[in-house]
Automatic annotation (TrEMBL):
Ranges for region Disordered: 89-118
Stated name of the protein: ZKSC1 protein
Gene that produces this protein: Zkscan1
Record keyword Signal present: no
Family: Belongs to the krueppel C2H2-type zinc-finger protein family.
Organism taxonomic ancestry: Eukaryota, Metazoa, Chordata, Craniata, Vertebrata
Any coiled-coil regions, as ranges: none
GO molecular function: DNA-binding transcription factor activity, RNA polymerase II-specific; RNA polymerase II cis-regulatory region sequence-specific DNA binding; zinc ion binding
Recorded superkingdom: Eukaryota
InterPro entries the record matches: Znf_C2H2_sf, Znf_C2H2_type
Pfam families, sorted: zf-C2H2, zf-H2C2_2
Domain C2H2-type, residue spans: 10-39, 40-67, 68-95, 96-118
Swiss-Prot/TrEMBL keywords: Metal-binding, Nucleus, Repeat, Transcription, Transcription regulation, Zinc, Zinc-finger
Length: 118
């Protein structure tokens, strides 16, 4: 749930989505969804992206760079989200609970797969 009281006074003129603070990169990046603009190009393969952060994440597929390290076992990951998922193997955390039977899962995709079997 989102924190209460956070106003979002800056609105996208196309869809009305609100932003809580004015950062041109945030709003402009969002507006590129509507315009289709992809100004950031991968120098390796030519694929284009809406944001510089998306380009940086993509560029790791062309290298073996794995900057996100597990503090428990040292395994490296290209994306922080992959590290977060991996850490659950060490902690046993299962934050996704089936509302039908109560079984818990470490990822939303595992919960979704489980729910299809009900």
């Amino acid at each position: 749930e989102k924190p209460q009281g956070r106003e979002k006074p800056h609105k996208c003129l196309e869809c009305g989505k609100g932003f809580s603070f004015w950062r041109s990169s945030t709003l402009w990046g969002h507006q590129r969804i509507h315009t289709g603009e992809r100004p950031y190009e991968c120098s390796e393969c030519g694929k284009r992206f809406r944001s510089s952060s998306d380009l940086l994440r993509h560029e790791r597929i062309h290298t073996d760079e794995r900057p996100f390290r597990c503090p428990d076992c040292g395994k490296g990951f290209k994306e922080n989200s992959s590290l977060v998922m991996h850490r659950r193997t060490h902690t046993g955390e299962r934050p996704y609970k089936c509302p039908k039977c109560g079984k818990s899962f470490s990822s939303s995709s595992h919960l979704t797969r489980h729910q299809r079997r009900h």
